[in-house]
Amino acid sequence: MAEKIQGLLAKLPAVDVLLKRSAMEELVERYPRGAVKAAIQETLSSIRQEVLQEKREVLPEMSELEQMISQQLVEHQFSLRRVINGTGTVIHTNLGRSSLSPRVKQQVGEISFHYSNLEFDLAAGTRGSRYSHLVEIIKELTGAEDVLVVNNNAAAVLLVLSTLIKEQEVLVSRGELVEIGGAFRIPDVVTSSGGKIVEVGTTNKTHLKDYQQALTEETGGILKVHTSNYRIVGFTESVALAELAELAHQAELPLINDLGSGLFIDMRQFGLPYEPTVKEALEQGCDVVTFSGDKLLGGPQAGIIVGKKAYIEKMKQNQLLRALRIDKMTLSALEATFELYLDPAQAVKEIPVLHMLSLDEEACRQKAESLAADLKEVAGELSIIVEKDASAVGGGSYPEHLLPTYVVALQSDTFSAEELQQKLRESRVPIISRIKNQANYLDVRTIDEEEFPLIVAAVKALAE
Ligand SMILES: *Cc1c(COP(=O)(O)O)cnc(C)c1O
Q1: Do 328 and 130 meet the contact criterion of CB atoms below 8 Å apart?
Q2: Do the domains spanning 84-95+359-463 and 102-350 agree at the CATH topology level?
Q3: How remote is the CA of residue 188 from the centroid of ligand 1, in Å?
Q4: Segment 49-91, tens digit of pLDDT
Q5: 84-95+359-463 — its CATH code?
Q6: Phi, psi (5° rounding) for residue 233?
Q7: pLDDT digits (tens, 9 = 90+) for 302-336
Q8: Are 397 and 296 in contact (CB under 8 A)?
Q9: Cβ-based neighbour number of residue 14 at 10 Å
C-alpha cells in the first residue's frame, strides 16, 4: 500500500514544470503570477492529501489538473471585496461610504496607470503643485478664494486648527461638541492640534452674547461644527452663521465651519430638509469651511478646505500638510466628480449617492417588484415578499430623516433569519441584508439594477 502511495506521489508534476505549460501561461496573463503559483501549490497539496488518506487511487489527467488549478484561481478572493448593499443606508461607512460614478473610472485609470502632471507645470515645464489641480473647479462651484484638499475631513479639521489656532483658544458651542464614529471627537481634535477649547453656551441653547463674553486676548478663532449625526430638538437656539461671522470679523478672528458632509445641491428636491450648501456657508461669512469627499458629495475619501486665500496660504506652509497629503488616484476621482457638478442635473443622474437619494417611492416600488419577480423564479422554499419600508441617508447626515422605500423580504422555513443573513453574506459577491420582522430585507434603494442577476444567482444557489 505504502509503495503505491509513494508511486502516485512521485508522479505528481512539480510546480515549476506546471508553470511552464501553455494553459498556465494563459492564466498568468489574467492573474498575478504569485496567485497562479499559489493555486498550483494548493491544488497539488489537496491531491497529495487525498492520496495519503487513500481517497484517491489515480492522479488526474493533465487537462483535468489544469482545470482544477483554474477553478482554484477563480475562487480566489481578495480580502477587500465588493459587496451588495441591501441595507438601504446610502452612505454606509462600514461598506465604503459612497460608490463612485462610472464616469470617474476612466479618469482614475488614466491617471493611475500612466505618468501624470501631478506635480509638474505643463505650461512652464517646471515643478508644479499637486494642490493646484482642483483649485479652479472648486472655486467655480463654491465662490471660494482658495482651496486645499487633504486625506479626509478629520485631517482637514486638524490642519485648519493646528495652523490657525495653534496654542490659542477656540470657541465652540456646547451643543456642537460632536463625536463622529471611529473616535473623532471635536474636543480631542482641538487638544491634539495644540489648541485650547473654550465651551460656550449650553447644550440646547447658545446665544451670540455667550460667544462675545468668551472672547479674550487668547482667542484664536471661532469654530462652528455641523451636528452631523445627532439633533438637539425642542427648546433650542444657536447663532446664525452671518451673526457669528460679524462677531469674529470685529475681533479680527477667523470663523471656521466644519460642515461634515458639504452640500453642492439643494437637498429639498429629495424631500430632505434645507441645509446650506458650501457656497452658501461661504456667502454667510465663514472664512474657512471643511467637508468630506465621500459623504453627500459622492466622491472618494478626501477632506476639502475652502475659504480665504490668506488662511489657506498659511495651511500650505504647515509641515503637517505633508503627512495629510492626498494621493493622485483620489485627486483624479475628485476632479471627475466635481466636473459632474458643473451641471447639477447631470450630478443627480450620474453620482450614485445622489441618484439613490433621488429615487421616489414609486421608483423604489418598481425596482422591488422587478427584483422580486426575478427571485420568485429561483427561490424554491424561500418566501419573497415586497414590503414598504424606510431607508436612511447615513454617513452622519440627516440622522432623524428617513426616505420611503420598498424592500424585498426573504424568509425561509429551514433557516432562521440570522442563518439566512449569514448565507447571503457568504455569497460569491456578499449580500448585506437588514433583518426586520424575522425576514431579511433587501432595500432596492441601494442596489443597482445591474446587481440583480448576482442576487438571483446567490438565492438560486441558496435554494438548491
Ligand atoms: C464626517 C465628519 C467628520 C469626519 O470626516 P471624515 O471625512 O470621515 O474624516 C468631521 N466632522 C464632521 C462634522 C463630520 O460629519
Answers
A1: yes
A2: no
A3: 14
A4: 999 998 898 899 999 999 999 888 877 778 899 999 999 999 9
A5: 3.90.1150.180
A6: -115, 165
A7: 999 999 999 999 999 999 999 999 999 999 999 99
A8: yes
A9: 10
Nearest atom, ligand 1, residue 93 CA: 8
**First-last CA distance in the chain:** 39
Q: Is 0.90 topped by the overall pTM?
A: no
Q: pLDDT of 19-44, one tens digit each? A: 999 888 888 888 888 889 999 999 99
Q: Which protein residue's CA is at the shortest distance from atom 13 of ligand 1?
A: 260
Which protein residue has the closest C-alpha to ligand 1 atom 11? 260
Cβ-Cβ contacts under 8 Å for 99 (sequence gap 6 or more): 352, 353
Give me the count of residues in the chain.
Answer: 464
The span from the CA of 195 to the CA of 70, in Å, is 58
Residue with cell string 499637486: 130
Ligand 1 centroid from CA 186, angstroms: 10
- Per domain, the residue ranges of the chain are 2-75, 84-95+359-463, 102-350
For residue 294, give the ligand 1 atom closest to its CA: 7
Is residue 226 within 6 Å of ligand 1 at its C-beta? Answer: yes
Ligand 1 atom 14: residue of nearest CA: 260
Distance between CA atoms of residues 95 and 301, nearest Å: 13
Binding site membership of 97 for ligand 1 (Cβ less than 6 Å): no
154 CA to centre of ligand 1 in angstroms: 6
Dig out the grid coordinates for 53 from the structure. 488518506
CA distance 23 to 421: 38
C-alpha of residue 294 to centroid of ligand 1, in Å: 10
Residue 330 Cα to ligand 1 middle (Å): 17
Q: How far is CA 417 from CA 55, 351, 405, in A?
A: 37, 33, 21
User: Closest by alpha carbon to 340, among 98, 131, 141?
Assistant: 141
CB-based contacts of 41, cutoff 8 Å, min separation 6: 15
The Cα 214–Cα 414 span in angstroms is 64
Whether 260 is in the pocket of ligand 1, judged by its Cβ within 6 Å, is yes
Class of domain 102-350 as given by CATH: alpha beta
What CA–CA distance (Å, rounded) separates 263 from 297? 6
Q: How many CB atoms lie within 10 A of CB 408?
A: 29
Phi, psi at 145, each rounded to 5°: -75, -35
Is residue 259 a contact partner of residue 294, using CB atoms and an 8 Å limit? no
Cβ neighbourhood burial of 108 (10 Å; 0-12, 13-18, 19+):
buried
- Which DSSP category does 101 fall into? P
391 touches ligand 1 (CB under 6 Å): no
Is any ligand 1 atom within 6 A of the Cβ of residue 439? no
